[in-house]
Write a structure and sequence with these properties.
- This protein is an alpha/beta fold.
- The protein has 2 domains: 42-64 and 192-290, 3-Layer(aba) Sandwich (D-Maltodextrin-Binding Protein, domain 2), CATH 3.40.190; 78-191 and 291-338, Periplasmic binding protein-like II (D-Maltodextrin-Binding Protein, domain 2, 3-Layer(aba) Sandwich), CATH 3.40.190.10.
- The chain has 11 helices and 18 strands.
- It has helices at 18-38, 88-94, 125-138, 154-159, 174-177, 223-229, 235-238, 248-256, 267-276, 301-315, 322-330; strands at 42-44, 78-79, 101-105, 108-109, 113-115, 122-123, 144-148, 165-166, 184-185, 190-192, 194-199, 215-219, 241-245, 262-266, 280-283, 290-292, 295-296, 345-346.
- The strands form 5 sheets. The protein has a 6-stranded mixed beta sheet, with helices on both faces. A 5-stranded mixed beta sheet has the order 7-3-8-17-9.
- Strand 5 and strand 6 (122-123) form a beta hairpin.
- The protein is globular, with a radius of gyration of 19 Å.
- The protein starts with 17 loop residues before the first helix and ends with a strand.
- Residues 1-71 have low confidence and may be disordered.
């Protein structure tokens, strides 16, 4: 755990150039390679070794996120209306001795949450949003303690009160807002979809028959894993094998090492990886709709409303809104064509 400080107006600066991206890829992938080799992947399903044809950029998502047909959940992306009030959760955070917000983030997702190889500082689209939330609560965008957490620890970190919020390309879906392990979400701040990332010489062309006999990697606890486990549409129905790892970047390393044939992940993350590594490409269309939200403890309803106020302000201003400035700085190069942030949906 460490606190990272950066100057104001970071959303307006351009991301590192391609030379820095290459350096980041080398550093990040080397670290992930060590983790991947030390922690064996989990395998599920048939399949055989295979070696990874038309190229595709990240496209608009096609279907609802997994869990969207849950019996008691019709609009998972609908959240609580924004409010500037400080309830029990916000007061607890403000009374903390450190005087800082504690945020669960990623450090391996290029453009979203990653370490600048030149400074070692955490930066990216998600990191800018965390700083906006800190500024709303404390009046200081640097009043943040960043805790980097793996994909499958996002929910436990909230339940165990290790973090106040999780801003880590986390999909809002019914499985996560209902049941024993539920968390609360803000309104959606971005929308992506699950898509395949494969080597450039791969025969895999889409999420379909060309996956037969192939090994498909995804992060444990992700919505990608939920889709791969689906009885009717998952990897077993396609004759493929699921491979799970703690972090999504570990999948890229295994792909580079030839230990898996494809990575199944959010198109937004995959686009960043394809930008870093010219030996891989996106194929097919996104097969789900994945709205990203800020996750919080399900009891912290006043914090949810406060974060939604931040998002209302973040979206406001049209082409010059903080959201659009952050999009142009971090995401536009690899995810072009986005004209506006997702519209908020409320349930009260």
């Amino acid at each position: 755990m460490r606190t990272v400080t950066r100057g104001k107006g970071a959303a307006d600066r351009r991301p590192p150039g391609r030379r820095r991206a290459v350096a980041l890829s080398a550093v990040g992938c080397a670290l992930a390679a060590v983790a991947a080799l030390l922690a064996p992947a989990a395998l599920d399903g048939p399949g055989e070794r295979g070696r990874p044809a038309p190229e595709r950029r990240a496209a608009a998502p096609a279907r609802d996120a997994e869990g969207a047909t849950h019996e008691s959940c019709e609009r998972p992306e609908a959240s609580l209306r924004p409010s500037p009030d400080s309830g029990p959760a916000v007061r607890r955070i403000k009374a903390r001795a450190s005087g800082k917000l504690i945020a669960g983030v990623d450090q391996n997702s290029y453009r979203w949450g990653y370490r600048d190889p030149a400074t070692g500082d955490l930066t990216g689209f998600d990191i800018e949003l965390v700083r906006a939330i800190a500024e709303e609560i404390f009046g200081d965008r640097d009043a943040v303690i960043f805790r980097t957490i793996p994909t499958n620890q996002r929910v436990p970190a909230l339940h165990e009160r290790k973090v106040d919020i999780v801003v880590r390309t986390m999909t809002i879906n019914c499985d996560r807002i209902t049941g024993e392990d539920k968390v609360a979400f803000s309104t959606a701040y971005f929308q992506a979809g699950q898509q395949l990332l494969v080597p450039r010489d791969s025969p895999i062309t889409s999420y379909g028959p060309t996956l037969r006999g192939k090994r498909v990697c995804t992060a444990k606890g992700s919505t990608g894993e939920q889709r791969l486990d689906d009885e009717r549409r998952g990897v077993r129905s396609l004759g493929a094998t699921k491979v799970t790892v703690p972090n999504q970047l570990d999948c890229l390393v295994r792909l580079q090492l030839g230990e898996v044939d494809a990575v199944f992940t959010d198109s937004a993350l995959a686009a960043g990886q394809a930008a870093q590594d010219p030996s891989v490409k996106l194929v097919g269309e996104p097969v789900t709709r994945e709205p990203y939200g800020v996750a919080m403890h399900s009891d912290d309803t006043d914090l949810v409303r406060r974060v939604n106020k931040v998002l209302e302000d973040y979206r406001r201003g049209g082409a010059d809104s903080p959201w659009m400035r952050a999009y142009r700085a971090w995401l536009q190069d690899d995810l072009p064509g986005v004209k506006a942030p997702p519209k908020p949906a409320y349930k009260d």
